[in-house]
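Lab notebook, bench 4. Still working through the backlog of constructs that have no structural model yet. Next entry is a single chain of 310 residues. Request: give me the structure tokens for it.
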Amino acid sequence: MYKFNFKTITPLHISNGEVLDQNFNYTIYRDDLFKINPFKFARMIAKKENVDFNSDIGIRVIEGWVKKYQLALIDDAYSYSVKIHETFNSHLENQRAVGRRQIIEFINSNGKFYVPASSVKGALLTPLGETSLGIKHQDPHIEDKVVFYDSEELNSENFSVYRTDNRPPENNLICLDPGVSFSMLMRKKGNFDRNNFFKKLKSYTNTQLENLNKEVAKYTSKRTGKLRKADLFLRAIEEINTLAAKNVSIINIGYGGGSWFKISEGVIPRFKSKLPNKRDVMEAAHSSYSFTINRELSHIGWCKLEIEEL
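Model written out:
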């Protein structure tokens, strides 16, 4: 049995596919976001309003109820609450941002956050260059299958809403904050070899970081004193480069590394250009997924990783 111990270096996001709308799915009070529990909220409204359930109830009506009964909602009708990072808070204060305040939710079960094993499995297989851990689950004669558990429940106090604005599409994400530890158990390890994995992980990470740094450097400013976002990106990823150089075992999981860390070792991801005059041109992705934090760009999804044999 192995125990995988993770500690976030940068914010971590793993989506459950849900998008939350302000004053419909969530409300903001001071420095916190409250996810509305629709069943509790409906019961509360049924008691407070003379509702005709035989007629349509429009979005504006619901938004009006959320604003009118916000404090009561916060007391009795929410699923969870998370902090608001200053990047998202400043976006809320921007009057031109009305209609662009949707938030991509972090995976949870009934308001209880966790990291699913399925999201981490790909990050383990990619450095190994494998599509599985050597166990053919469809073979009934093989009993020693890989059994990998989800993480323990994660405290909602360790989550915040962050704002992206470096590249379109701009998004708001609920993320696990930096400096938070969580663990996952691999009860049956199949053909997974810890020493071989770490050897390949370090090679993979170093190679992909080297490629990423070279590509981003092509877009840095050529004039002194005028920084481009590529300059900020390289500055923001310095900690990751330093840790990799020190042979610290680091891994990128979830929504963070983008294509750079979900592709075969040594390969540079390429996409069709978004420029009108280059629609059919394949260009290297000059940055991976990141967002503004502390007035610079943060390359999200990075964790330190230790694996204990139990």
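Notes after review: The chain has two domains: 2-21+102-309, 22-101. The first strand starts at residue 2 and ends at 8. Flag for follow-up if needed.
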